[in-house]
Design brief:
This protein has 97 residues and is α+β, with helices and mostly antiparallel strands. It has one domain: Alpha-Beta Plaits. The chain has 3 helices and 4 strands; from the N terminus they run βαββααβ. A 4-stranded antiparallel β-sheet has the order 2-3-1-4. A hairpin with a 6-residue loop joins strand 2 and strand 3.
């Protein structure tokens, strides 16, 4: 299993647009083949700092989502709302309870 973490920072005036976009598509993302879990977390000290944390059965499942029409729709709309470049990383789960 892998965990994908994407850290994003949004323009203050664009935050509600992103939250609406995520809410509209969160079930579609979570329903992608191989997606086990999807979370949206918001920094306590900076409401514009938001990260997504997703768990995938295999790297190929994440890659299939990243090549999907859904991702091709969501990601450009999300990028347009950023105040800074995002940072993303993937991690192999070695142990989970």
């Amino acid at each position: 299993m892998i965990v994908r973490i994407v850290h994003m920072h949004f323009r203050k005036e664009a935050l509600s647009s992103f939250l609406a976009l995520f809410d509209e598509h969160r079930n579609d993302i979570a329903g992608q083949p191989g997606c086990r879990n999807l979370q949206l977390v918001q920094a306590e000290q900076d409401e514009c700092a938001i990260s997504t944390i997703s768990q995938w059965d295999a790297p190929e499942d994440l890659e299939a989502y990243r090549n999907s029409a859904l991702f091709q729709h969501i990601w450009p709309a999300t990028k347009a709302l950023f105040s800074a470049s995002p940072a993303a990383s993937s991690h192999t789960v070695r142990w989970a309870s």
